[in-house]
Specification:
By secondary structure, the protein is mainly beta. The protein has two domains: 8-232, no CATH class; 237-419, no CATH class. Helices cover 0% and strands 61% of the residues. It has strands spanning 8-10, 17-19, 36-48, 62-67, 72-78, 81-82, 87-89, 92-101, 104-118, 123-136, 142-151, 154-155, 158-159, 168-174, 177-192, 195-207, 220-232, 237-249, 252-255, 261-262, 268-274, 277-279, 283-285, 288-295, 300-313, 318-331, 339-342, 345-347, 350-351, 365-369, 373-383, 386-396, 408-419. The radius of gyration is 25 Å and the shape is globular.
Length: 421
Amino acid sequence: MRRASAVVVASTVLAGFTLTTHPPTASAATATPAPVGYSAYGYGTYVSSSLAALNSGATAYSGIGCTTTSNLSTSNQVASVDLGRVGKVGTDYSQSRSILDSSGRTSQGISQISGVNLLGGLITSTSVKTTTRATYTPTKTSYGSNSTAFVGIKVAGKGFAVGVGPNTKVAIALGGKPFASVVLNEQSQAKVNGLTQAVTTAIHVTVTASNNMGLPIGTTVYIGRSYAGLKGTPAGFATGSAYGTEATLAGAVKSGPTALAGVACDGGDRTVGVASSAIPSLLSVGAVKSTTSSVTTPKLTSSAADQITGLNVASSLISARTITASTSTSRASFTSAATSTDGSGFVGLKIAGRPTITDSVKPNTTINLDQLGTVTLHKVTKTTTGIRVVMVSITLNRALGTLAKGTVIDIGVSNTGVQNR
């Protein structure tokens, strides 16, 4: 991440997170796989709206995900956050931890905010703090806890006593007409394969009707959110990515990956695409689509594919109608061997002056082109834990535009693997 009541789940891929509307569905399975991985995050604010100017990513985000390593701690803090017409908050702090002590293994997420002022003062609080924990005990039981602490919370002028109950709902009106719903101390938990996942949100606002604040219907605001989860990792974690093109020189990125999609480390699907792309003075491509997926049962499996249409390198020195880079890696347990497959290929591959180069070119075929440099086709690199495929890899023998001699250009990339953490 999946990912309870719009849980945002930390991911190690690009430090990303995804947003959905419900907690994970409890599994019918009762056996708890081992070892157990930690996952936790915290953040201060998040705004989602059909009006692009209102959207705000998670602020002061900190997270720990897809790891079996204990006693890690991350934190983040910003002095203040301006959410435009939605409102403002003061100091915004979060912390995520993986804890190993006498009670067992615990994931913990914390979010703490001061000076909350939303919707033109209709929602205010001196401070809010949420703490979410998920624990796996030495006796192989699992439980979670959610807590929220408010100081001076008011909604539409109404104050609340200390200890606002879980999932307290309040309606907000303007001119006597309700236009938003608020949930205070929003809590949820779920058991997946016997392990706990939990999320807590101090303030959850949803705009439900038209209003003179310029907030579209469906605008959603989360304030003070924390998550903690434990996940069975019988075979480790998936890793990998797929993307269209990238240029590097001595390890430094000169042209970043296009349509980059990372593999979810603990199960999930991702798709990223662009209509066209180019590296000036060298190449152009049409549509690029990257898709990745991973599952944890019955085998841990990482899959990644990138498809490119209409490749044109150096004025048709190298061209192809379609390029597909596709790999998959799986294993059944931490101790079993990983198995990798390669389903990559070309359609309409042509290299000027090289009629013997066709779609059926053998993997790791290297040629030298005086006008360009060294070119490796269907480059395959395998390790004991994964595989990487680059369908066209070029090392320049001269400077081209802003690209210096020695620049490496990779086209059509898929890499997948499994790892222990």
